[in-house]
Amino acid sequence: MSKVQLIYTGVSQIVGGPELGLLILSDLSHIRQVAIVCDSRMEYELSLRAAGTSLTERLLPEVLCSINPRMTGEHYEVLFNSIIDGQYKALLVDKDDLTLTPIRASDAVLLAQVAKLDIFMEESLFKRQSVDYHANKNKIALPVNALSMEMLRHALDKAIEEENYELASMLRDEMRHRKKDA
Q: Which residues form the BFN domain (predicted)?
């Protein structure tokens, strides 16, 4: 399996949508990027770490990392290996015994930031999901399969309201595909 190493570059809010944000991860050369949907609480958690406040030293991720000295990049890494129903699937990989522990995608990014873990994505998934990287841009394209059903419904309503029937058709097809697979 080939994989691409990613770095966390920041968080962006979804304007005009539900209370969600996007965690932006780019490849090391800043050519391509992916966006992972997160809730507003995770946006806040990551902003605390970015600000470097001492407030975080008593929060759960930091406490768990301090009592588990193996929770370092020497022993663990994060791997994004698929996307299902608009949600990236992440694994915490124990590099010593190759144990794979499923973890929520946004939590995996937070843990990687706290414990200084490397983040990887399977290369085929990265090629399929990534878009061109643009630093300091306020817009990012998201593949339709990276949207939750709630986000798809919201986007469909907006596409119909704006009379963008081609986009509405594509969104409707994605929703039908997911319902059929459920």
A: 3-133
